[in-house]
Every structure is written in C-alpha cells, then in structure tokens.
C-alpha cells in the first residue's frame, strides 16, 4: 500500500478500537452492543492487514490468539447463561441486581454478556 494509506492507518486504528470498546460497554444504554462492537474491533485489524500486510497484523494479534479469544468469548457467554440455573432459577436468569436507570451498572448481567459477545465476534471475524 501507499505511504498515505499506511500513515492514515497508524492514526485511525487506535480510535477505531476505542470506539469498538465503547460500543461493547455501552450497548445496554445506547444502540450498539457486543456484536457491532466486536465487528468494529475486528475491522481495525482488517485495516491493519490491508495497509501493512498479514505479517504485521498477525504480529499484533496472532490467528491462534484470535481463535482462542473467540472460544473464550463463547464459553463466557454460555457460562453466564448457565449461572442462572446454578442460582436456582432458569437459563439466562438475570442473577445480578439491577441498578439505577441510565447508569453503567444498570442492566444486570447484560453488559457482561455484551463483553463476551464482543470478544467472540471480534476474535471470530479476524480469525
């Protein structure tokens, strides 16, 4: 790629990752969530691949690590779903207390599920 594309990629990849993390963490308050946040994070690594080549992108995040993150995200999501049964309830029981509306910790375990989905989707799309 050209020097312009490489220079722009160096500057825009960190804000793209930061925006993806924001989408994952605020998915229960604003439009977004784990899936779009994971796609945005994975797209930053795809931009690195397009600008610098696979070798540079895989130095930042190895394919085996991305595949491991995908598996870990799926296991975390499944564990959250099964914890409801462990607390004497049902599958996907919201076992965490609900907070005050429009606060970060206001949605029970939905933010944790968004994080797990973001890890799974981000790792899966890049792997």
TrEMBL record:
The chain crosses the membrane at residues 12-29, 35-52, 72-92, 104-126. It comes from Aerophobetes bacterium. NCBIfam families: PRK08386.1. Residues 4-125 form the Na+/H+ antiporter MnhB subunit-related protein domain. Its main location: membrane. Pfam families: MnhB. It is a multi-pass membrane protein. GO terms for cellular component: plasma membrane. PANTHER family: NA(+)/H(+) ANTIPORTER SUBUNIT B (PTHR33932), NA(+)_H(+) ANTIPORTER SUBUNIT B (PTHR33932:SF4). Keywords: Cell membrane, Membrane, Transmembrane, Transmembrane helix. Belongs to the CPA3 antiporters (TC 2.A.63) subunit B family. It is found in: Cell membrane. This is Na+/H+ antiporter MnhB subunit-related protein domain-containing protein.
